[in-house]
Amino acid sequence: MEYHLLGPVEARHQGDALRIGGPRQRTVLATLALNLGQVVPVRSLVEAVWDGAPPATAHRQILTAVSGLRRSLGTAIETRHAGYLLHARPDDVDVHRFERLVAEARRLDEGSRHAAAARLREALALWRGPALGGVRGMAAEVARLEERRLSVLELCLEAELATGAHADRVAELFTLVRAHPLRERFRALLMKALHQLGRQAEALEVYRSGRTQLVEELGIEPGQELVRLHAMILAGGDERMPVAAEPLRASDRVTEQQVPGPAWYRDPPVSVPPAFFGVTLNSTRGEMPGFRVSAVRLWDCACRWSNIQPRKDVFDWQRLDRFVAGAQSAKLPVLYTMGMPAGWASPDARRAPYTNDSRAAPPRDLADWDAYVHATVTRYRGRIEAYELWDYANSPMSYNGSADTLAEMVRRAARIIRSVDPAAFIVSPSFGDLWEPSGREQLHRYALAGTFEPCDAVAVKLHQRDTLDPPEQMIELTDLINRTLHKAGVQRALWATGLSHDIVHAPRPDQATAGAHAVRHFLAGIYARCARMYFYNWGGRKIPLVLQADGGPPTQAARFVERLQHWLDGACVRSGSHGSDDNLPPNVWQIRLVSSSASGRGPTDRSWDEAMIRWTDIGEATMPVEPGMARIEHLDGTVEVLDPAGPMVITELPALVHYHPGSEVSAGS
Q1: What are phi and psi for residue 644, nearest 5 degrees?
Q2: What are the beta bridge partners of residue 622?
Q3: HSE (CB half, 13 Å, CA atoms) of 528?
Q4: Which of 128, 165, 250, 664 suits 494 as a labelling partner, its CA being 20 to 30 A distant?
Q5: pLDDT tens sequence across 55-100
Q6: What is the per-residue DSSP string for 60-119?
Q7: Are the CB atoms for 651 and 585 separated by under 8 Å?
Q8: In this structure, which long-range contacts are made by residues 603-607, counting pairs with CB atoms below 8 Å and at least 24 apart in sequence?
């Protein structure tokens, strides 16, 4: 049996199409196939079919739809608990086969670009038209899959250009740029192909027309990839670098001068913020993590506004009380995310993608928002450290109001919080989709509306482009975010409060990759100088990288994150470097540390004055042992004594390099 979702939804047996019924049954089948290997509750099928507005007979209609599917699929659909499970191998569902081929392509090294490009083309060939054709609703899932197709197509075209197939791909790229004029990646690839073919004038026109459209439609300048390519073509350079090269600002000179030294340096060194290592709780029991963290965020734990105030005259504090008490007992500061009223407060608004009556919109009367904020802050004064004033405010699944309304809600909430609990942090509504120019344009528009003015920090969804990409991509994203905010005159600390909505559908990494990526998630945040990082999430099983499932033991990735925190105990951060910044191999990153006693910040029981954390974003690197280096400590607890005459191997798993106490170490060496 095969299941096709990348086009019209269909099931085939030995190549023959089966009768699977109309839109309702196709939606049920598509939902089960997308969640392969998981029991899908009936309520989730109801949400998928009716998009949050089910009839009274919805449950019975789902039962009828499943019965109809079983007439064609037989025992492939199993009833289990209060839901259904589709039995199939991942490769029998084109969506999962697509992701497997993409993951294989990403694992190939640079010497296998032809093979990588071939696998990506094989994956793209699985698409037979717009995804989920013939279903009812599921607009968000259709949009997610289309975005996934385009991002993989970008990856494929880049791999093909790297093999020299410029002439073969120019026509396709022209078509894609016309179809997606605001998608800068396609435009950058077209400029690169034209330049390599000696068609510089056309490449420059592609840039000019794209810049005109971005400025006129979105009011923003092109991103760093386009700016760098444009500068390189004007200078008559030879484009041998990847398209996603080091950033070059429009105001920089055409010929960039390399200045050696760390990317940034702190004198005196600074310690990592005490509550930097956070997690978002995805549990309803009130349990806290079973490994070391330093802060918790309450969102996907049934503590939304709609849960707390199900009716205008009723507040239900039971679950939030349990979480706050648990966090207090564990001495963990709490970030509580506000937002999403129940239907009584916003009766005409779209339902949010949750099983209760949450609405993805502001309340009809902002006085109801004031009452909710005041009641919450009054009850938890001194016990909740910080308030995030909405989640994913630029996603229609979370917020359907205007920028001006949200800015007014933030101002009102800030006044209440400061009057009731002046010590509490006020964190802005969070914003995501920031890799895309349209997402950054929304961030800029909300900034101009005054959304961030009353806030102590700006909350953003910080993640790499794709789940299996190096976490260090987040450093580039923070640069784009800070530039966008700076253009609007906003300078605030960044709190990373989650990932993108489609994280639950991303491929799951192997154990070694999971451990490396979990640690580097936080290291990337330190390098990018974020004030707080909340790993998304703790307790849930559906995301690709699990630190600890609710009721289960911590994973190896969680233990590695715990050890990273031990490495930073008693330490201050002096500098961050990457590649040619500091005469390092191009794939090597490092964060240099100094013990707090050596930095003049008081006594410590650490036996070292200087150390550094080193790792690669891909592959390995062999480096000489520098003068003064004593040993290298790995995340599994093993320690390797370094031979002064021998090489040191750096891998994708970060390691702590110790110097002999009292060694004279240059921060730029």
Answers
A1: -55, -25
A2: 649
A3: 29
A4: 250
A5: 889 999 999 999 999 999 999 999 987 799 999 999 999 999 999 9
A6: HHHHHHHHHHHHHHGGGEEEETTEEEE---GGGBHHHHHHHHHHHHHHS-GGGHHHHHHH
A7: no
A8: 604/570, 605/570, 606/569, 606/570, 606/571, 607/661
Dihedral sign for Cα 368, 370, 376, 378, please. negative
Structure tokens that stand for 138 in this block: 């599921």
DSSP annotation of 493: E
Rg (CA), the chain: 26
Among 154-158, 629-633, 659-663, the minimum mean pLDDT is found in: 659-663
pLDDT tens digit sequence for 236-288:
765 443 433 333 233 333 333 555 678 888 888 999 988 999 999 988 888 99
- CA 19 to chain CA mean position, Å: 39
Strand pairing report for 571-578 and 264-270: antiparallel
Could you tell me the pTM of the whole model?
Answer: 0.66
Q: How many CB atoms lie within 10 A of CB 47?
A: 21
SS3 144: helix
CB 157 within 8 A of CB 165: no
Three-state secondary structure of 187-218: HHHHHHHHHHCCCHHHHHHHHHHHHHHHHHHH
In the beta sheet, which residues pair with residue 40? Answer: 84
- In the chain the first and final C-alpha atoms are separated, in Å, by 60
Instruction: Assess whether the previous peptide bond of 537 is cis (omega < 30° from 0).
Output: yes
